[in-house]
Amino acid sequence: MLLASGVPSCPSIVWTGPKFAAGAGGWSPLVSDRYQWLEVDLGERTKITAVATQGRYGSSDWLTSYLLMFSDTGHNWKQYRQEDSIGSFPGNSNADSVVQNKLQQPAFARFLRLIPLDWNPNGRIGLRLETYGCPYTSEVVSFDGGSSGLAFRLSPVPRKTSREVVSLKFKALRNSGTLLQAEGRDGLSLSLELERGKLFLLLRRGMTQLTTSHTKWSGTSSSESRRLASLGSLLDDQHWHHVVLEQKNAHLNLTVDKHTEKVQIAADLDSQKPIVSKRNFHGCLENLLHNGVNLIELAKNNDHQVTGNVTFSCAEPVSVAVTFTGPQSFLQLPGATASSSGGVSLGFQFRTWNKAGLLLTFDLPQQGGVVWLYLSEARLRLQIHKGRIFILILSNLVPGSALNDGQWHSVDVTSRRSRLMISVDKEEGGVAHANPPFPVTAGGQLFFGGCPAEDHSQDCENPFDVFQGCMRLLAVDNQLVDLITVQQRLLGNYSQLQIDMCGIIDRCSPSRCEHGGRCSQSWTVFHCNCSDSGYSGATCHSAVYEQSCEAYKHNGNTSGHFYIDVDGSGPIKPQLVYCNMTEENTWMVMQHNNTELTRLKPSAGVKQHSVHFQYSAQEEQLSAAISQSEHCEQELSYHCRKSRLLNTLEGSPFSWWRGGPGSGRIQTYWGGAHPGSQQCSCGLQGDCVDPQHYCNCDADRMEWTEDSGLLTHKESLPVRSLVLGDIQRPGSEAAYRVGPLRCHGDKNFWNAAFFDKETSYLHFPTFHGELSADISFLFKTTASSGVFLENLGIKDFIRIELSSSTQVLFSFDVGNGPLEVLVESRDPLNDNRWHRVRAERNIKEASLRLDDLPVATQEAPTDGHFHLQLNSQLFIGGTASRQKGFRGCIRSLQLNGVTLDLEERAKITPGVQPGCPGHCSSYGSLCQNQGRCVERTNGFHCDCSLSAYTGVFCQTEVSVSFKPGSSVSYTFKEPYELSRNSSALPSSIYSDMTLRGENVSLSFRTNQSPALLLYVSSYYREHLALLINKNGEQDARLIVLPFFNPLHDKQFLDVLGSCHSFCSLWIHISLHYKVYGNSTTMTRRKQISNICPVQQSKDIMLASLGFAGCLSVVQFNTISPLKAALLHPDTSPVVISGPLVQSNCGSAGSANPYAEENTHHLSDQSGSVGSGQPLVNAIRTDSALIGGVIAVAIFVIVTALAITARFLYRRKETYRNQEAKEVKQEDSQDFSFNNQAGSQNISTENPKEFFI
């Protein structure tokens, strides 16, 4: 006998001693298998709170795990589950110790059944059992679904409290019906409707009449209805369910069993399609209480407030169900007896979540055929085979809803005289007829749900999936099958069945899918469809979008519209904002419905003008975005003409605005001033037009003036509404503008701490992530291992660590044993660069993601513990269980969307420093095109002063659309000025003058030929020119004249190839040169010697001599003439001639000298010629030919540059190169260049076309 100690909160104890089946000292069945059970009759319904077990006395017989079942009638058993999932209870480890299991929720039942699952492998099933609980009394009433019902006329005396509570328990014998309807004031009423096994709370407006008769109890209503809440599922399982409805003013709480939904009654009733049950309730109610008064007891005592016709007992029909649990489940029954009709009559009901599965199969021995009745795509289908040939196929027998909805569906198969009829849910009209060529009889064996294993098969073959679900009311020849006899092995055969119970579970009620994810399920698992939710993962828990524009920027994005999820996996939905990344700060812009300047004029009878602003973001989104940002601002401006604004400090203001959370608080200051000052910006600065007032508009002048400024006090943002008061006087005019809300800086993104010792750590309160938890952070380190974070419980724990220099390990235990998820990187993780870790654990799986590597996952047990129970402090950077902590930086640590303030905690913790510098090592690669990464306290920025590009990442091309007559000239400082002022030269304008070579890059688009793209001259009479020359009727060629001194040498570099669209070129003039192209092939034809690098160039001219087209990203060494002309025209030594139009005519294929290069050394060039007519390509031995070509080219330049033409003409000489004597002479078209208008073709570039 067990001692009754540690009894959970009951005034009395119910003890049940062991029942002996065999042996002494406890219960031990003759056969030890999983089909045994011990059943206990407690004599009456009892509140059971705990169960204790002990092994059989003096033996090796004990249980190691078991199931508990409860029932009121000894039939229709219900399995008890802990945490909605755990079905098994731990047993004993020896025969003497007592193991007590307390029930998380008490069970109310008369009968208890214990089913052994596992036992000592060296012994048998052995058990001594004791239950703990207390007596349970209740008042019950039964409704037949037709003529029975109750009406309670409560006293109209108003109660002192506004709180109303109705509680009850119900047991439904039908899946639809009206449980309760309560009429209130103003024609409003609440009703509880059971529909398809779910409970709905409806709010109705209108009169409802209750009528009674000897044969019928009904309610008629023409009222509007609105669904307030929906809870529960499978509530027609013929078990008791507890309902509590609590109302306090306009707030309602509906609780069904353990789940609660909170709703609020709106002032207006939206028109909705009503969900009204067409049936009265069929079942039983227990302990119907209204504010503590048992109404059933009043009815039982014939109280005058109660009318109706009911039975004060709960009569339950005996309906034995069977559950097919797994892939080896089947039920074998004998077929129909011989009949004169030679037909078959079979019937059953089933319920399942699976779309496919075999329901029934039997042989046709006389015809040598087989019949299969099965589910496919949630539709009922029937196949008849004869000799493996299809004889008859009936499919899609049900035109209505799918049959895997978890509801009971009836199936009847009838065959008489070669006529086959199959009906599904007769009341809904699903019937199909067929005429097979032979009679269909079932005289052999019937197999339901599946077939036996092959070695035990008795003429049963199943080419389909097995059935997982419940069946009941099995009938053969219109006779119900006694499944209790089957359970006792006296009829038929079965395997892996649960008889006398339906073990269906609705895994989607309540839904484990978060953030609006749609839940679907099969018999064993559920699935979340996260599409269009903005979240991902097995339960739609983790946010898809970043939390700020700052985060998008550091992913390499540029300006644009982005979805922002300010709280990550928290409850706030993503919002669409505009991220402006063109400035040093990254701005998040949130628009409202009126950001334009709006003009006002006096209107008759209108004394004030009021305007409300509706933002694109919701209230919680705005509040979270403002709180998370480092700085927010909003422009507020008022343009006035004889319209006062705030008047004086002593008087009440004419105008005001509301700002802040909710509807906002009244604010009487204006943009640029301080909160509460009742001033404008000019009053704060002391420069108002009238010194006696603090706003320009308060001067009340006839001239137009304005008061404008930025609102920067975050507690007063955003602006919700605006009231303008002085607009009714004759002659008054005004205009206002409230700009969009702009915020920059992400306090969470850069929140970091540096752990300089392995023994240092930060601690925070216990992490609460019972059902789902996500953890994300960034780290950088030089150490090879260390624990990032750890939180412990009594048995449970959660930990993330750097297990090696290439591995991150996520481990936890929720009671099922430790589970680990590992991600391994090819590259070392201790490279002192930022790496991102994202870990998630939910009831379905655990996942771990490292940087952009594939996510690693581990599935959780289907029927296991899933509540993570922690109780110690959360350790960051260290651990309470291990010696070695983390050494390095941790940044942006978020747990379930909440950022931990590492910096504030680090300020008061020894061994930990707030912040973590050194971001360029990770983000420096975002700076493109020679952009230089510059460190900032929180982040970095790209210095584009040495690049021909601009933009936040130096990625935006600087392009100009040149018109005829437009040019840009850039002049260097004189040599002596350069040396004298070299220490003060800004790098964005002047280059290093000690050059050993020249680098020229540009991109262009033009339809003009010939044309001069670029011309450079130096103080040492050296020149460089880029020219386009015609080549036949269609093609154009690019000619490069490298630096040459007309006194000594003249050199031509021909770049072959046609250029029909945008072309890119990069040339290095030194020992070798390099060429790039995206639309043309550019090759060097012949060696050029004696090339002298330029020394201190004098000027650069772009697009001179009539060029029309587009030039982009022009760079000469470190000088960017176009960028200087467009962005710094006042501080740069540039001269602009003609119209200069900035354009987006650039191309994605612009010159990039730091991309993969085609390098051609001067010593390895051959003299081969490509297709097409060659331009000037080699140095001729024929001095006359060489002289003619150079003479024409120099003549063109002379005509364009009058200041050098005479000098170049007088010094012109023929250049001979002895190393080129062996080169074969080739004909060449003379280069002809003029500036005539007839030769100019304006580029047809599209100004809207954008190239990156």
Could you characterize the architecture of this molecule?
The relative contact order is 0.05. The protein is mainly β and 1252 residues long. The protein is globular. Helix 10 packs antiparallel against helix 11. 6% of the residues lie in helices and 39% in strands. The strands form 18 sheets. Strands 22, 24, 29, 30, 31, 33, 34 and 36 form an eight-stranded antiparallel beta sheet that branches. Strands 41, 42, 43, 44, 46, 49, 51 and 52 form an eight-stranded antiparallel beta sheet that branches. Strands 53, 55, 60, 61, 62, 64, 65 and 66 form an eight-stranded antiparallel beta sheet that branches. The two termini are 85 Å apart. It folds into seven domains: 123 residues, Jelly Rolls, CATH 2.60.120.260; 142 residues, Jelly Rolls; 179 residues, Sandwich (Jelly Rolls), CATH 2.60.120.200; 34 residues, Ribbon (Laminin); 149 residues, Jelly Rolls, CATH 2.60.120.1000; 167 residues, Jelly Rolls, CATH 2.60.120.200; 155 residues, Jelly Rolls (Sandwich), CATH 2.60.120.200. The longest helix has 18 residues. The chain has eleven helices and 84 strands. This is Contactin associated protein like 3. Belongs to the neurexin family. It is found in: Membrane. Pfam families: F5_F8_type_C (PF00754), Laminin_G_2 (PF02210). It is a single-pass type I membrane protein.
